[in-house]
Amino acid sequence: MEKNKMGYMPIPKLILTMSLPAIFSMMTQALYNIVDSIFVAQIGEAAITALSLAFPVQLVIVACFVGMGVGINSLISRSLGAKNYEQAALAAEHGFFIAIILYGWIAVIGIFVMPSFVRLFTDDPMIIQYTIQYLEIIMIFAFGRILAQAGISILQGSGEMVIPMFSQLIGAVGNIILDPIMIFGLFGFPALGVRGAAIATVTAQIMSMIFVFLMVFKFKKVVKFNPLSFRVNQEILKKILVVGLPAAIMQAVASVMLTGLNLILAGFTTTAVAVLGIYYKLQSFIFMPIFGLSQGMMPIIGFNYGAKSKERLLKALKMGLVMAVIYMTLGLVVFQIFPKQLILWFNGTDEMLEIGIKAFKIISLGYPLAAISIVLSTGFQGMGEAHLSMMVSIFRQIILLLPIAWLLGTFGSLDVIWFAFIVSEIGGIIMVLFFFKRLYQRKIEKL
């Protein structure tokens, strides 16, 4: 195998080369999230509230494929750094095996569990109907997104970032084009409303999956593997799950947190639930590029950790921190200056504006701290220590944020609940710095 650029290219150039395609694709994904909700908001507040209730469930699906992807990405990059090409190929084969198992579970839950789950939050028949319509389609046809992510992670783990960018671009642009057609009934299609938004989403995901499969299996085999000769290898499964399962749990924690917050906010008004959903759609435009940066950094960190290159590993972390903090600070400025304009994109009512402007300004104060936590957590995952990222996430979102939000909501007003986000970010940054110091003394310093 030819010399891998992750081992010799100057770190600044390498991070930009690896991260810019992922950042671009993530920005496109974030744009889709916003446009999708803007279209649905035109149906009415009940429709946008339904998407807000559906969002935590979608995060569970995201948790499944992100956790799987992180495990595949990390193992392949570390294997290539250690010149263990056979293990890299086995990691790719087992990634698809895990993806198929995950899809089966998600489809079953979508069919049998979702109707009862939705009724926990509201007795409004219109919101219940919209939410169930959306989630059943998203979960039954989730195979497109999950299998596409398996292929994307194989490519990213080997240092190939451009093809994943195009695959995500196909999905996002396809979704943006199909949304108004399916929702409002253009070009002879029937107007399907919220159900149409779900159909547009899964159709675009399947298009992305087809493109990834063509690239991985036919035109661009970066890691040489053969799924037809697949045999379950418990050691390889363990190595993927040791990194991937904590990453999945870390993502799923966000779903638990949002579900809990929705229950707390619904005790005040369902409009607050809609505002939180809008915030998370808009927040994606700030956070997605940082996640793109992380996707570019993780194989660099994993490769150089496997190659025992301490200097290159630390340079990658330092540059990632600087880039992330600068970008998140710009995001903070936007949310402080333009909260009203952002909410009005979603057909915001006077009540939504009254709640949302205060919420946006308070929550965004924690963005620079979140940038540090995300980059260092990426470092943990790249070095095979994903359980540290998981512990930080659980501490920040479950142990701190939810109980504090409940206390503030019980003894205060709706407006003060949002300060729980700030407290959780402060607690999270203290914990992530503590873990990084220990990891540095235990492993990095000895490379």
Instruction: Kindly give the count of domains.
Output: 1
Mean of residue pLDDT values = 87
Class by SSE composition: mainly alpha
Q: What are the secondary-structure elements, in order, as H or E? A: HHHHHHHHHHHHHHHHH
Strand content: under 5%
- Characterize the largest beta sheet: strand count, sense, and whether it forms a barrel: none
Distance between the termini: 24 Å
Helix fraction bin: over 70%
**Radius of gyration from CA coordinates:** 21 Å
The number of strands is 0
Structure characterization notes:
- With 447 residues, the chain is mainly α.
- The protein contains 17 helices and no strands.
- The chain has one domain.
- 83% of the residues lie in helices and 0% in strands.
